[in-house]
C-alpha cells in the first residue's frame, strides 16, 4: 500500500484559501479519483490537547498562536471539506495540563450534569470516538467519570481493568468498552452510499498505576498494550469490522518490545488485524523530518509503523493528524487499497522565525467556553504574595536557577514542618526539583518569566506545571549521588578543550533533570553518563558528580537523608536508580503547587535568588553551546556559578548561548 503526501506548499496555499473563502476546496486525490465501488475515508486525530481549548497561554496571560482546539477546529472544517467521507477521534490527555483544567477540578468542581469546557468544545466539533491518556486520571476516577458523562461520543480503553486482572484479557472487568465498531455511511466514486464498519480500540500507558497510584491503587490495574490488542482485535474481526483503528495514547519507541511498555505503538502496529495506529503521549510529530528518524520499523517520511499508516499530531492542538484511506468493495465489506498520512500544523514560522497562524478560531468553540475562560482568568490573576527578584527559567538547565530554587525552598519548608514531631525529625531534609518550562519541544517562549513584584496563582502554576502531590523518600548518601548521576544525563559528554560543543542531550526530558538542594556538587562533563535513560548502570567507572558535600564535608554514603519530591518521582517515574515506592516515608495530602502558594503566603515577600549549590567542573579552554529563549539575554549578567555569553540566533525562534567551562 503506497503512501502519497501533498506538498506542504499546496497544503499551506489551501489553508490560506480556505481562511479567505469557503468556496475554494481542493479534494484529496483519493476523493477525486475514487471510482464506483471505491471510496475515500479520512480519519482525523487530535491528541494531547491538555485543556488548551483556546489559543491562550494562561501562565503568561496572553494569546498564543501555536495552540488551541478552537484553532484546530477551523482546520477540521477545511480538512472535512477536502475529503469524501471523514471521521474525527481524540487520542487522550485532554483533561489536565493548564489552569483551566485546575480551575474546574479544584475551584468550580463538577456536579452531576455539569459539562467540562473541553467536552463542550469536543461536542461542538462532533467527535466520533476517543480514548484515555494518562493525565485523565490526575484528578481521580470520580472526577474523570463525571467529565466523561457529558461526552456525546464513546470512549474506549482495552487495557484498564477494575480491581485485579483476570487470567485472560477478555475476562477482565473493564472500566470502558475495549472497542467500538461504528457503522459509517460513505459515498463511493459513483455517488452511491453504503456502510463501512470502522472499529476503534483504545489503550492507555500501563504506567498510570505508578503515576497516579494515589487514585488507582486497589481500584484499578492495567494490562500490557500489545497483550490486550492481541486478545481483542480478533474479536473485532469476528464482529465484522472492515477496518480496525488503534487509538494508542502511547508513543513510538524502537528499543525493543518489553512487558508493560510505556511507548508501545510501534509494536502495537505489528499486531495482526490492526490497520492503522493513531499515537500520542510523546508530544512529538509523526510523520515528520526529525523526531523518529532511524527507528527500525518506523518510516518517518511515509508515516508508517510496521508498514501500516500511523500518525502523531503534536500537542495542545498544534497539529491535526490525518490518515486517508482509499477503500474498495470486497464482497459485502470494504478493504484498504491505498493510504496517505499527514500531521498538518495550525501555524508556521516566517522568515524572521515569528509564529504565523494558518487558521483562525472557530467561533462556536470559543463561544462554548467563554464563561469558563473568563472565570479561569480571574482565578489565575489573584495575587498571593510578592517576590523581591524576578523568577525565570531561561538558564535552569545550565546554572542554579531561581524558578527551581523557590520550589525547593517551599518543599523543604513543608516537609520539615510535616516531619517535625515524628521519627524522622532529626534527619536532614533535602529537596529535589526539576525545571518544567525549559524550552525544548514547548518552543522558544516556553519558559517561566515572572517579574519582581506581585505573584499570582498564574505565576505559581507557571513555576509548577503539574498537579503532583508532595512526597518524601528516605535514602542514603550513595543514593543521593546516584540520583544526581541520573539527572546528569541531561548533558552530552564533552572533550576537554572542545570549542562550542553541543551541551544538552535533546533526548533527555527537562522534567527529569532534578537539582537536589541542601547539598553542594559539581558536574564533570568530561565523563560519560553513569546510567542510561532507564536507570541501568552502563558505565560503572564513570562519576560525573564530583565534590558532593553536605554541610561542607564529603557526603557519607551511608548517611540517611529525607528528600522532598513529588509523587511521580517518588513512585518510580523517570526510572531513577533505587527511587521507588518502597522508599516513600511521607505522602502529603497537598499538591506541590498548593505548598508553593502556602509558602509564599506565609513569607509575604520571597527572595528567590539561587544559592549556586551546583556548577560544572571547570575544563580549561572548553566551551559549549546551548539554546534558550531570546528573552534570556536580559538575565545573562545575573547568572551565578556559571559564565554564559550570547552566541547569536538559534533555530525556530531560539537564541544561542555559550557556556565557558
Structure description:
With 661 residues, the chain is an alpha/beta fold. The protein is 23% helix and 28% strand. The strands form ten sheets. Strands 7, 8, 10, 11, 12, 13, 14 and 15 form an eight-stranded mixed β-sheet that branches. Strands 5-4-1-16-17 form a five-stranded mixed β-sheet. Strands 27-22-31-25-32 form a five-stranded mixed β-sheet. Strand 29 and strand 30 form a beta hairpin. Helix 4 crosses helix 12. The protein is globular. Belongs to the 5'-nucleotidase family. Its cofactor is a divalent metal cation. Keywords: Hydrolase, Metal-binding, Multifunctional enzyme, Nucleotide-binding, Signal. It is found in: Cell envelope.
List keywords for this structure.
Bifunctional 2',3'-cyclic-nucleotide 2'-phosphodiesterase/3'-nucleotidase; disordered N terminus; about 650 residues; eight-stranded mixed sheet; metal-binding; 17 helices; TAT_signal; Calcineurin-like_PHP; nucleotide-binding; alpha/beta; five-stranded mixed sheet; single chain
Strand content: 25-35%
Quaternary structure of the protein: single chain
- Average pLDDT taken over every residue: 91
- Total helical segments: 17
Please give the share of residues in helix. 10-25%
Sheet with the most strands, sense and barrel status: 8 strands, mixed
Low-confidence residue ranges: 1-23
- Number of distinct beta strands: 37
Structural class by helix and strand composition: alpha/beta
Amino acid at each position: 500500500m503506497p503512501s502519497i503526501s501533498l506538498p506542504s506548499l499546496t497544503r499551506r496555499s489551501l489553508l490560506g484559501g480556505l481562511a479567505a473563502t469557503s468556496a475554494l476546496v481542493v479534494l484529496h486525490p483519493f476523493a477525486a479519483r475514487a471510482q464506483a465501488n471505491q471510496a475515500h475515508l479520512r480519519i482525523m486525530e487530535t491528541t494531547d490537547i491538555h485543556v488548551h481549548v483556546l489559543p491562550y497561554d494562561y501562565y503568561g496571560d496572553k494569546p498564543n498562536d501555536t495552540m488551541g482546539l478552537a484553532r484546530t477546529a477551523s482546520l477540521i472544517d477545511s480538512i472535512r471539506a477536502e475529503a469524501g467521507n471523514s471521521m474525527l477521534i481524540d487520542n487522550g490527555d485532554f483533561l489536565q495540563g493548564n489552569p483551566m483544567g485546575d480551575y474546574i477540578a479544584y475551584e468550580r468542581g463538577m456536579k452531576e450534569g455539569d459539562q467540562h469546557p473541553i467536552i463542550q468544545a469536543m461536542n461542538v466539533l462532533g467527535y466520533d470516538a476517543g480514548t484515555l491518556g494518562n493525565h485523565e486520571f490526575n484528578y481521580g476516577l470520580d472526577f474523570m467519570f463525571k467529565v466523561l458523562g457529558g461526552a456525546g461520543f464513546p470512549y474506549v480503553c482495552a487495557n484498564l481493568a477494575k480491581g485485579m486482572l483476570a487470567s485472560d484479557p477478555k475476562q477482565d472487568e473493564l472500566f470502558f468498552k475495549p472497542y467500538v465498531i461504528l457503522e459509517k455511511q460513505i459515498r463511493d466514486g459513483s455517488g452511491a452510499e453504503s456502510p463501512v464498519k470502522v472499529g476503534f480500540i483504545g489503550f492507555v500507558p500501563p504506567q498510570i498505576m505508578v503515576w497516579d497510584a494515589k487514585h488507582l491503587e486497589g481500584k484499578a490495574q492495567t494490562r500490557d498494550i500489545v497483550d490486550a490488542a492481541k486478545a481483542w482485535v480478533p474479536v473485532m474481526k469476528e464482529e465484522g469490522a472492515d477496518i480496525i483503528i488503534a487509538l494508542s495514547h502511547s508513543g513510538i519507541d524502537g528499543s525493543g518490545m518489553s512487558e508493560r511498555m510505556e511507548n508501545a505503538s510501534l509494536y502495537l502496529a505489528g499486531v495482526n488485524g490492526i490497520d492503522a495506529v493513531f499515537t500520542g503521549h510523546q508530544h512529538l510529530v509523526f510523520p515528520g523530518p526529525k523526531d523518529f528518524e532511524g527507528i527500525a520499523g518506523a518510516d518517518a517520511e511515509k508515516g508508517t509503523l510496521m508498514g501500516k499508516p500511523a500518525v502523531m499530531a503534536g500537542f495542545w492542538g498544534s497539529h491535526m493528524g490525518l490518515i486517508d484511506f482509499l477503500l474498495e468493495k470486497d464482497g459485502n465489506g470494504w478493504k484498504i487499497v491505498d493510504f496517505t498520512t499527514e500531521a498538518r500544523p495550525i501555524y508556521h514560522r516566517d522568515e524572521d522565525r515569528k509564529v504565523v497562524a494558518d487558521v483562525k478560531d472557530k467561533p462556536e468553540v470559543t463561544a462554548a467556553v467563554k464563561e469558563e475562560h473568563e472565570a479561569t482568568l480571574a482565578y489565575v490573576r489573584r495575587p498571593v504574595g510578592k517576590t523581591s527578584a524576578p523568577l525565570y527559567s531561561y538558564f535552569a538547565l545550565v546554572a542554579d536557577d531561581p524558578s527551581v530554587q523557590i520550589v525547593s525552598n517551599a518543599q523543604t519548608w513543608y516537609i520539615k514542618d510535616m516531619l517535625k514531631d515524628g521519627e524522622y525529625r532529626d534527619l536532614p531534609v533535602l529537596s529535589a526539583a526539576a525545571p518544567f518550562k525549559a524550552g525544548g519541544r514547548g518552543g522558544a517562549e516556553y519558559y517561566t518569566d515572572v517579574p519582581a513584584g506581585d505573584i499570582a496563582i498564574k505565576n505559581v502554576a507557571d513555576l509548577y506545571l503539574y498537579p503532583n502531590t508532595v512526597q518524601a523518600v528516605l535514602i542514603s548518601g550513595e543514593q543521593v549521588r546516584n540520583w544526581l548521576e541520573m539527572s546528569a544525563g541531561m548533558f552530552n559528554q564533552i572533550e576537554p578543550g572542545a570549542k562550542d560543543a553541543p551541551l544538552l542531550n535533546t533526548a533527555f526530558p527537562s522534567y527529569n533533570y532534578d537539582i537536589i538542594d541542601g547539598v553542594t556538587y559539581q558536574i564533570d562533563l568530561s565523563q560519560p553518563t553513569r546510567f542510561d535513560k532507564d536507570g541501568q548502570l552502563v558505565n560503572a567507572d564513570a562519576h560525573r558528580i564530583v565534590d558532593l558535600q553536605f554541610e561542607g564535608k564529603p557526603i557519607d554514603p551511608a548517611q540517611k537523608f529525607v528528600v522532598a519530591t513529588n509523587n511521580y518521582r517518588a513512585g518510580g517515574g523517570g526510572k531513577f536508580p533505587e527511587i521507588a515506592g518502597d522508599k516513600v516515608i511521607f505522602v502529603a495530602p497537598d499538591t506541590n503547587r498548593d505548598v508553593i502558594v502556602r509558602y509564599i503566603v506565609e513569607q509575604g515577600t520571597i527572595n528567590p535568588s539561587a544559592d549556586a549549590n551546583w556548577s560544572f567542573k571547570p575544563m580549561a579552554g572548553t566551551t559549549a553551546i546551548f539554546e534558550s529563549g531570546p528573552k534570556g539575554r536580559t538575565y545573562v549578567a545575573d547568572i551565578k556559578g556559571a559564565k554564559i555569553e550570547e552566541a547569536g540566533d538559534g533555530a525556530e525562534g531560539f537564541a544561542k548561548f555559550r557556556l565557558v567551562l
